[in-house]
Design brief:
Layout lengths: L2 H15 L7 E4 L3 H15 L5 E4 L2 H9 L7 H4 L2 E7 L2 E2 L5 E2 L6 H10 E9 L12 E5 L4 H10 L4 E3 L1 E2 L2 E2 L7 E5 L7 H9 L4 E4 L1 E2 L5 E6 L2 E5 L1
Parallel strand pairs: 1-2, 1-3, 3-6, 6-14
Antiparallel strand pairs: 4-5, 5-13, 7-11, 7-12, 8-11, 9-10, 14-15
The protein binds ribulose-5-phosphate.
């Protein structure tokens, strides 16, 4: 574990937790940085701040429930006031790639329904150009081999995500193909092309969905709007 990185994630989470206000419904992200946020939110709840959470993954749901945060399902949530989540990489134009933890589908559903979205991170996630992090594509299991072929026809190399020797299954029972694009690839254009392939459920491209970035850095927490 890189202690400096963890500290930056935690500091970003502490700052972002201050945006949670009484009565709000909060989209709770997934991944290590989002888990720091959920722990901060849990502390606030225990201190008397009342809000509801809607989780972007089973893991986050379990963590939030263990901290006593009341959770809503998609049928009860209705309005989501604020979503706070981590990213795998993000550029200056607030275009992000997410899904390293496999929760991209729910993350996108919740972020796209939220009135306000905050991405939280350590400084290693801030990049000049998207494409460093493997780009996730969620596919239904039946469609996966066909999508794999189509991505190969684009000249890219899709790699089936595996966990414990078996194809990784998302919370929605789908597979993930990861693509390591070239450094100068046009990620938004590639994402648009891939998104249209039958069998693809969602991609990890989150184009300008957030209104604010909260990044822990070596010179303190930076909030960018
Ligand atoms: C999960 C995600 C995460 O937000 C992303 O992978 C960042 O994770 P971490 O905070 O652990 O670096 O998109 O699907």
């Amino acid at each position: 574990m890189n202690r400096k990185k963890e500290q930056q994630k935690q500091q970003a989470a502490q700052t972002a937790a201050n945006y949670i206000k009484e009565g709000m419904t909060i989209g709770l992200g997934s991944g290590t940085t989002a888990h720091y946020l959920i722990r901060e939110a849990g502390k606030k709840y225990a201190q008397g701040l009342h809000f509801y959470g809607i989780a972007t993954s089973r893991e986050s749901e379990q963590l939030a429930a263990s901290l006593g945060i009341p959770l809503l399902g998609p049928k009860q949530a209705g309005k989501i006031h604020l979503a706070i989540d981590g990213v795998d990489e993000i550029d200056r134009d607030f275009r992000a790639v997410k899904g390293g933890g496999g929760a991209l589908l729910r993350e996108k559903i919740i972020a796209s329904r939220a009135d306000d979205v905050i991405w939280i991170m350590d400084e290693s996630k801030l990049v000049e150009h998207l494409g460093t992090f493997p780009f996730p594509v969620e596919t239904v299991p039946f469609g996966m081999p066909f999508v794999k072929l189509r991505i190969r026809e684009m000249g890219e190399v899709p790699v089936l995500r595996v966990r414990n020797g078996s194809p990784y299954l998302t919370d929605s029972g789908n597979h993930i193909l990861d693509i390591q694009f070239a450094q100068d690839a046009d990620i938004p254009a590639a994402a648009e092309r891939i998104r249209k392939m039958p069998g693809v459920v969602e991609t990890g491209y989150f184009g300008q969905m957030c209104s604010r970035i909260v990044a822990g850095t070596s010179s303190g927490v930076k909030v960018m709007e």
